Amino acid sequence: MNELVVWSVVDIAALIAGLAFYLFVVGGQLKRIATNLEECAELVRTIKGHAEVIEPGVEHINGTGGVVAGALPLLYGMAEGIVVGVTPLPAEPAVREPARPASGRRRSRLHDGVGYVPAGVSD
């Protein structure tokens, strides 16, 4: 019985040591994350300060963009008129005769393979 108590105490001590090591590692990682978040927060404040300076210019650009967007349908219509005015009409397709072989009528060679020579054909 005494040996069982000793092994239980050793087991509990090992468990507590393992948990302490785990908490030490996790604490270090959380400390690094907190440092990175502080740096990010400072960068965000700097960007916000820079953005406040250009905000009036952005409002002016958006207003100009609205004027241009309002004129786009008119410009599109004018462009369509220009394209229709300069596009040539398709030419009427010429009627072509069926293609004929350049060497005249050809004789089938299938008959030669079986030794048949039709009447009126000379070799």
TrEMBL record:
The chain crosses the membrane at residues 6-25. Keywords: Membrane, Transmembrane, Transmembrane helix. It comes from the Bacteria. Residues 94-123 are annotated as: Disordered. This is Uncharacterized protein.
